[in-house]
Amino acid sequence: MAKKCASGIMAALATATFGADYACADAPFNFSPFSTSSSAPQAAPEPAKSPSEPAAPEPTKPRNDNPRTTSSGFDPEALERGAKALREISHSSHAKKVFEVMKKQEETRQQELTAKAAEFKAMQAQAETETKRVVYDEQKKLAQQQAQTKSQMARYEDELARKRLQAENEHQRARNQELVKMQEESAMKQEAARRATEEQIQAQHRQTEREKAELERETIRVRAFAEAEGRAHEAKLAEDVNRRMLVERANAEREKWVAAINTTFDHIGGGLRAILTDQNKLIVAVGGVTALAAGVYTTREGARVIWSYVDRILGQPSLIRESSRGKYPWSGLFSRSMSTRSRGANSSGSENLNGFGDVILHPSLQKRIEQLANATANTKAHQAPFRNMLFYGPPGTGKTMAARELARKSGLDYALMTGGDVAPLGSQAVTKIHQLFDWAKKSKRGLLLFIDEADAFLCERNKTYMSEAQRSALNALLFRTGDQSKDIVLALATNRPGDLDSAVADRIDEVLEFPLPGEDERFKLLKLYLNKYIAQAGEREPGLFSHLFKKQQKQIEVKGLNDDILKEAATKMEGFSGREIAKLMASVQAAVYGSENCMLDPNLFREVVDYKVAEHQQRRKLAGQ
Ligand SMILES: Nc1ncnc2c1ncn2[C@@H]1O[C@H](COP(=O)(O)OP(=O)(O)OP(=O)(O)O)[C@@H](O)[C@H]1O
């Protein structure tokens, strides 16, 4: 009973002090007699519910039919009930007990509250932990999502980059293709431009060639004109001398002939008178004259037929202009003996001077030719095939002379033909070439066939102006020289080696350049021709009957002409060929013969040299050199 009272008082007091809410919270002390609020215990705060869970029904509050709440919300009824209960307790004998029970209850309730608080705290801590865990989970999920998003982004970016790269590659490839196309187009354009330029150059080249040919023709014309003039001048100089000599000789001859004619007519007159007076003598004379005429005619025609036959079988081909073999086999014996004699006579002169006949060459070139001559001689001795040669260089530099000397030194026969002789032969050319090679093969010693002006005959086959006959002749020569020969050495000479057909060039084993003579060579040439045309002018040529057939030249007196003057002239004559130097000396000779006392002195020599040097320079100017 005391316990019940205590609870009731407590509840009443609590309700009065803190209102209904507090009364609800204190559910365990809710004694029914004093309680105005709900007797159902207040539930502990629940953990946060997920929004998906259905909302729990609101706890129903006890109905208060007589509310006595003041305007400020205070309910005095509970206090009244509490005061009533207190009064009852104070009048009760068990008041003390009641208070003790109340105290105990209060303590118990305090403990319970503490436990509740602890539980609540634990729950709160758990809720916090849970919240943290949820937050952590959420963060983890977020991090995972972020990582996933990031990786997706990276993949996406990677893909984008790949696509971009691919697109760039495509673009680059397209550009490259375009570039290649442009380059091809540009190369084609360049090629076309190059072809056009080449054609232009070729046209220009052809034009230049035409102009050059024209210039050459003009130069030749001018040169011929100058030479004719020179010859006329020389002839004029020599004319006076000759006229004087002729007049003297003619007077003597006239007297001799007048005497001879007088004697002959005396004899003929006597004979005719005897024949005409005697008839028998007349018949015999007429018959004799007729028989003699018939005999002479028959013999002459017969000899002509036989001679042409012999000539065809044994004679030298018409293409050969000069040969050491002579026109007929037997003439070789004669000509060789003569040449031996002449060389013997010469040996005191030029042969000793330079060891190479009359040819003056640069020492290195001379040495090379001597080596070639030795090699050719040995080749013949060992029956090995000969080596073909090409001599090239400006006109009149001694190519022909060197070839002749080479043949002589190597012990071969020598034959010279000129390329320019082939074209006029027309369709006969091929036959003549074969005839020439057949003839050359007959030489027992081996033959050096020298073709001068080789470019006129052996030029490039595809040249348009080359005639069919000329082309065939060249083919015939190529055919005959296709293999290396043990009988014939082919020596070609040309001023234009570049014009030779490539097949001809292919047959050449040795190429020698003959340059214009240097100062030393010019000096030696001057000395050589001074000796030949001036010092030996009055001497007879060696030969069996030369004194019968050749007119003797007048001897020339040389005064004061020494080596220094010759050297001075050699210095002035820069650019002169050997032929020009020889001609200069011939002019000097003519000038000497034109002089009154037939004497050569330094003044006359210098005069001619200066005149010739000026003429040479004029010619060069005309030729555009
Ligand atoms: N090196 C030389 N030594 C001596 N004389 C020479 C020399 N070069 C030329 N001559 C003189 O010039 C003349 C012509 O020489 P040669 O015929 O050998 O010349 P080339 O070079 O064959 O000329 P082209 O090319 O015109 O045929 C000779 O007769 C000679 O008088």
UniProtKB/TrEMBL annotation:
One of its GO terms (cellular component) is mitochondrial inner membrane. Residues 103-255 form a coiled coil. Residues 385-518 form the AAA+ ATPase domain. It is found in: Mitochondrion inner membrane; Mitochondrion matrix, Mitochondrion nucleoid. Signal peptide: none annotated. Keywords: ATP-binding, Coiled coil, Membrane, Mitochondrion, Mitochondrion inner membrane, Mitochondrion nucleoid, Nucleotide-binding. GO terms for molecular function: ATP binding; ATP hydrolysis activity; zinc ion binding. Residues 33-95 are annotated as: Disordered. Residues 33-53 have a biased composition (Low complexity). SUPFAM superfamilies: P-loop containing nucleoside triphosphate hydrolases. SMART domains: AAA. Residues 78-95 have a biased composition (Basic and acidic residues). It comes from the Eukaryota. One of its GO terms (biological process) is mitochondrion organization. Pfam families: AAA, ATAD3_N. This is AAA+ ATPase domain-containing protein. It comes from Fraxinus pennsylvanica.
